Each structure stands twice: as structure tokens, then as C-alpha cells.
Amino acid sequence: MNNVLLRRQSQPGRHRPAAERFGFTMVEMLVVITILLLLMSITIYSVNYARDSERVSGAAGKVQSFLSGARDRAIYNRKPIGVRFFLDSDDDPGAGTGQRRTVSAMYYIDPGQLWSDGAVRLHRWDPDFNGRTNFPSSGNNPDINGDGVPDNPGLIWMVAGLKENKWWELKRRGLLVDGIRIRIPAGPTGTWYTVDTRFIDITAPPPLTQYLVLQIPYADPGDTDVRRSDAFELGGPENYELELPASILPNEPALMPDGVVIDLDGSRLPLAWRPSALNGANFSQFMDIVFSPRGNVIGAPASAGVIHLYVCDQIDATILKDEYISHLPGATLVARLVDFETKVRSGVGNFVPADEIDSGVVANSWNSGLSDPGEPFLPKDRRLVTLFTQTGSITVNMINPTDVFDPFDLDGDST
After folding, report:
1. Which residues share a beta bridge with 212?
2. Whether 258 contacts 79, CB under 8 Å
3. Residue 27 and residue 30: Cα distance in Å, rounded?
4. Cα 201 to Cα 116, 161, 170, 196, distances in angstroms
5. Best label site of 125, 256, 279, 337, fewest CB within 10 Å?
6. Would you tell me how many other CB atoms lie within 10 Å of the CB of residue 295?
7. Does residue 168 contact residue 206 with C-beta atoms inside 8 Å?
């Protein structure tokens, strides 16, 4: 009995195993969640950045391919084919400009025909139609073409046509519009001029004489006394050609990706497309690029040499512009837009912002509402589609907006 007790006492002790762990501590869970949230944020940011870059670069490639398609069709069909850029109906419902200043749709077009019915007479500036040149009594010349610069009324600005020219009927049908071109005299020896139709009133019966206004004066000053509006006694040009608007070909429009536009204020465009006070500071409704069967650009845009189309994010194309224009001097929106356009035309440059716009640098200036002081406003990706009109070649390039490309000092560094 004692031996049994001794053996039991000599046996090694049995210890209860420690409790097993089935989860994480609170600290470990918080660390894991923090890491997951950080990775998720980085992933979402990277995806959004890549999508923004792809949207803009894809849109630029779409513009390039659409222009190239028109060029190829013109060469293949051995007839001129073009592309028309349509102004957006409204940049942004909350935009301060309230104007149409971007493009997000394109159509293929068949160039318009020439109209040459009747004959013309050339006149100096005579808005009263009394046969006398209208020299202002105050000595301040009028701004005839709406470019903000006084013009000489003693030059030839008006083209008169009789009822048989049928200009009134053309305007009533929507075929004679501001911005179309007239060649005087007709044929290859003539010169093209852009016209506006302010003196043709389709709400009244057609008058015996109808007038078009040239946007630049006629090359010949005439041979009569400068006080007479009729510029030529004998031998003046009588034949002409009006280039009627193009017709849209039966195709679906090419639309830019959602949220991407061609910003016309950041683009280099033919002068005839640009705004003026006469059209309410709007861009032309007939922004047409037409390719010849040889592949080069013909018509008014050909003289531009190079056309740059600035493709960017829609928000960047509106919010910066609205902030800038709203702080320009001018009692009305049109006055501020004309001032803005004058800056562009005077060589200040196009509206292309820098990569970072620090609103804190100019906290009391135009862009104070873009972001909190010290927090830079960062424009998204952008591209430049370049068309060389003499050859018809089209390229897409990235933009490196240093101060050279920031003529409006959007970054606020005063340089």
C-alpha cells in the first residue's frame, strides 16, 4: 500500500494546458484596417488618375483620327471633305461666362457651294444709306468690325447688291450667316473677305438694295471722292462669289468622352472663328476645317498655317476661366469677354494654366475662390492636337506649361 502511494507521489505532475488563442487583439485589428484603408486609398487615387489621363489622351486621339478620316476621305473620293466643330450649348450650368466656349462634338461636312447671282457695288462706310461716307463729327472713328479697334470709315467696308442677288432669301433660309466668306472679284484673281449680315433684316420685306459688311476693308480704296460712299465711278469690281455654309453628311457625330472638351480659349484658331463684340463675344458657329483631294487644308483656316486644339478636362476649362473673367473690369459680361478676347489677340497668349495654381499666393486676387490658401489647384491632364494646314498632317502632344505657357499669370508668381 505504501509502495503504491509512493509511486503515485513520484509520478510527474500533470499541468493544464494554456488556453488557445482564436483571434486578433484590438491593436492588431486597428493596424490591419489602417493598412487596408491606406492601400485602398492609393489604389482608388491611382485608378482615378489613370482614368483621367486616359480620358484626355483618348479624346485627343479621337480628334486626331476624326480629322485624319476627313483627309483620307477627301483624297479617296477626290472631292473636298471637312470637319465641323460644334459649340457646346452651355459649358456648365453654373458657369460665370454663360457663353459657349468649348467643343465636344464633331461632324463630317460637305463644303458649301458658291453663289454669284447678280452684281455688286463697293461702298465706304455708310450705315445711313444716304450716299455719303459716315465720318463721325466727334473725330472718334467707329469700331466697324467689332475687334475693339477704331476703323477708318473712308475705306471700303460695305458690299451692295440688288434684289436679284437674293441675299435676303438666302439669309431667310439660313444660308447667309455672319462669318461666311465673299470673294471679290470672282475667280482666282479675287480676294476672300469675311462678312456679317447686320443690315439684312429678314423680319421686314426685302429692300431694293441689300448690304453686307466686310470684316477687313477692301484692298482698293476706290477712285471717287472719299466723302462719297460709292467707291468706284467706273471700272470697279461687279462680280463676286459667296461661299455658302457646308452641309452635314449623314453620319453620327463624334463625341468627346464625358467631361473632356476642346477649350477654344486655350487653342490657336483662325481669326475668323474668334469672338467679337458684334456676335456677343461668342465663337463662330461655322468652325470648319476642309481638306482638298491633295490632303491639305483649304478655305479660310488654310491661312492660319498651324491650328492648335487644346483638349482638357471640362472643369479646368470652365472654373479657371470663370474666376478670371469675373474679375476683369467691365460693367457687363460681354464687356468682360471682349476685354478677355482683346488680351488674347494682343499677343498676351492663350488661356493655358500652369501645373499648379497656388491661390494662397494671390489670396486677394482673381483666383482666391479656387481652393484654401496654401492648397494649390491642380489642373488635370491635357493634350494639344496640332494641324499643319499646308500639309494636312496632324499630331498629338503633351503640354509642358511653364511660365512661357502661362501668359495670364494664372500661377500668381507675377512672372
Report:
1. 159
2. no
3. 5
4. 20, 14, 12, 12
5. 279
6. 14
7. yes
Q: Grid coordinates representing 339? A: 476685354
pLDDT less than 50: residues of the chain: 5-6, 91-95, 98, 361-364, 404
- Cell 486626331 belongs to residue: 64
Q: Which domains does the chain have, with CATH numbers?
A: 53-111+251-405 (3.55.40.10), 113-245 (no CATH)
Closest CA to 149 of 282, 408, 341, 325: 341
> What whole-number distance in Å separates Cα of residue 315 and Cα of residue 91?
9
pTM score, whole prediction? 0.66
Burial of 339 per CB tally in 10 Å (0-12, 13-18, 19+): middle
H or E segment and range at residue 394: strand 394-398
Q: Give the pLDDT confidence of 234-282 residue by residue, as tens digits.
A: 777 889 999 888 888 887 788 988 889 999 888 888 887 887 665 667 7
Bridge-partner residues for 162, per DSSP? 209
Instruction: Give 230's DSSP letter.
Output: B
What is the DSSP secondary-structure string of 182-195?
EEESSSTTSEEEEE
Reading the block at residue 196, the C-alpha cell is: 456679317
User: Per DSSP, what are the bridge partners of residue 161?
Assistant: 120, 210
Distance CA 374, CA 376 (A): 6
Q: Determine whether 36 is exposed, middle or buried from the number of CB atoms within 10 Å of its CB (0-12, 13-18, 19+).
A: exposed
Q: Among 201, 188, 194, 116, which residue's Cα sits nearest to residue 157?
A: 194
Give residue 93's pLDDT.
Answer: 43
> What pLDDT was estimated at residue 118?
92
Q: Which residue has the cell 512661357?
A: 404
- Site of grid cell 489622351: 57
CB 356 within 8 A of CB 377: yes
Residue 275: strand, helix, or coil: coil
For 24, 276, 354, the CA distances from 266, given in Å and listed in that order, are 57, 17, 12
One-letter amino acid at 150 equals: P
pLDDT one-digit tens code per residue, 62-80? 999 999 999 999 999 899 9
Cell of 205: 420685306
d(CA 213, CA 76): 38
DSSP one-letter code for 38: H
CB 195, CB 159: distance < 8 Å: yes
